[in-house]
Amino acid sequence: MNSRLITWSVASAVILAGGIAAMKEGWLDGWKMRLGELMTSPGAQYSSARFRVDLVDQFNYSRLAAKTPMLRVDPEMEAWLDREFAKIDTSDLNKVTELVQEGMPRYYRVSVCSASSPSLRELGQRFHEYSHRSQPEMTHMAVALRPRASGLMHEALLVLGQRLRDFTPEALSKSADEPFFSTCVHCKQPHFMKLSRAQRSMALECPKCRRKYAVIAADSAGNFRYVNEFLTGYAPSAVFAKNQSRVQQLFTIWAAVHANCRYTNDPGAKSGTNFAKKEQTDCWQFADETQSLQRGDCEDSSIFLADWLMSRGFQVRVALGRYGDLGGHAWCVVKIDDKEYLIESTENRPDPTDPPLASRVGSRYVPEVLFDRFAIYVPTSPHRAWKGDYWSANTWTRIEPRADLGGDPILARAPVGSPAKSGSKSLLEAAATADVTRLARTTFASPAAPTFLNLGSIPTDAKVWSQSLAPTR
Ligand SMILES: [Zn+2]
C-alpha cells in the first residue's frame, strides 16, 4: 500500500468514528479541517506549539484593538495546568475556577474556558469570540491541551487571570488602585488587599487569623513606609551634664522634644473636617522634619522622641493605640533597669521628680501596635486582655516587615465568588473574582488624640542641653 492509501484509510476511519456525534455537536467544520490536515505532509502539520502561539496572538490582537494591556503567558500557571489537567473535569467549569483559585492563590480574577475539536486549527478559532470578551484587568494566560476520544479530538483548557504583585509600601505608593497579594506572617494564609491611598496610615490585618502583620503610613511626600522606617537614626548633637543618670538623660531629651514640638493638628488636616477625615489626611513626619517645623501631632513627636532616645542607646518603643475614650493616640515606652516608663511627647511637661512609671500612669493607655527602628510588635493574640507589659514576648510578636513579608505563597483553600456561564454549546466558560473573605482588613493606624495627664512642671535640672537644627537623616 502506498502512503496516500494509508492516509485515506485513516481518514475514513476518523470520519466514521466521528460520525453523527460530530454533526450533532457542531464539529463538522473541525472534521473537515482535520481531514485537510491529514492530507498535508507531516512537516506542514499544525503543532500544539503553534496552536499555543497563535492563541496568545489571537487574544493580544483583540486586546490591542480594544486598547487593553497585553496578556502574558504565565509559565507557573502553565506548569500547574499541565500537572492538573488530567484530573480536571471540564463539564463543570465553575469547579475549575475554584481549583485554579486554590492552586494559584496569586490570581485575583480568574476566567476559564474550554473547547474541543478534531482539528487543532479549528480549536483555536473556537476561542475567537471569547478573545474579544477578555476583561481588561486580566494580565496573564495559560493553556493546556489533552487528547480526547482516543486521540480523535483535542481538548483545550484556557485560563485567563489577574495575577497580583506582592504588596510593598513602594508598590502602593506608585499604584493605580490595583489590588495586591500578600501572605500572612503569622498563619501563612495567602490573601489579597485593596488599599486606598487616601487613607494615609493603616494596619493590615489577616482575613483568616485576624492578627495584624504590618503597619504603614505615608510620609509628607506621600510615600508609604513601614512605620518602623520612620525611625531613621536621628541624633541631634546635644550636650548632657556630667554624671547624669539614665533617667536624668531621658528627662533631658524628653524636655528638649517637648520644647521643640508644639502639639498641632496635622498640616494635612483642614479645619472644620471631622475626626475620620483628619486621620485620613494625616501624614507622618520624620524626627528632623518635626524639629525643623517645631510642631507635630502625637505620632510625630513620639517618633522624634523615640528616634533620639534610640540614638542615645535607650530601649524604647513607640506605641500606637487608644487613650481612654479619646481614641487613637501615640506615646513612647522606655525601659531602664527593668523599669518601664510611659513617656508622653505631647501635652505634658516632664517632671524629673515624678518619673512616669508605666505601671502607675499607664492604666488608660491601651497599645495596639508597638514599633522601634527594626521591627513592629503586634499582640500575640487578637483577643488577649491588656496586662500592661510592653516588652514581654508572651504579649508581643516581633515582625520585621522587610524580612517577613513577600515570601513564597502557600496554597490557599478558600471559597470563590459566583461564576458566570455562557450558553454557547461549542465553548464552555466560567469566571470568578476572589471572595471578600480573602481580602485583608485594614484599620486606621493614625493616632489623633492628645492626652491631658498633668505630670508636673518644667524640669529645673534638665537645662544643660543644646542641639543642632540641621537634619541628620
Ligand atoms: Zn493570618
Structure described in brief:
With 473 residues, the protein is an alpha+beta fold. The protein contains 14 helices and 20 strands.
Roughly what percent helix?
25-40%
Q: Report strand order across the widest sheet.
A: 1-3-4-2-19-18
Shape: elongated
Number of helical elements: 14
Sheet with the most strands? 6 strands, mixed
Low-confidence stretches: 267-280, 407-424, 448-473
Q: Tell me the Rg in angstroms.
A: 32 Å
Strand % is: 15-25%
Q: Indicate how many domains the architecture comprises.
A: 2
Termini, distance in Å? 87 Å
Number of strands: 20
Average pLDDT figure: 80
- Ligand identities: zinc ion
Specify the structural class: alpha+beta
Can you walk me through this structure?
The protein is of the alpha+beta class and 473 residues long. The protein has two domains: 3-162, Pathogenesis-related Protein p14a; 169-407, no CATH class. Helices cover 30% and strands 23% of the residues. The strands form five sheets. The chain has a six-stranded mixed sheet, with helices on both faces. The chain has a six-stranded antiparallel sheet with strand order 14-13-12-15-16-17. The chain has a four-stranded antiparallel sheet with strand order 9-8-7-20. A hairpin with a 2-residue loop joins strand 13 and strand 14 (339-343). It is elongated and about 110 Å long. The N and C termini lie far apart (87 Å). Bound molecules: zinc ion.
Write out key terms for the chains shown.
473 residues, alpha+beta, Pathogenesis-related Protein p14a, 6-stranded mixed beta sheet
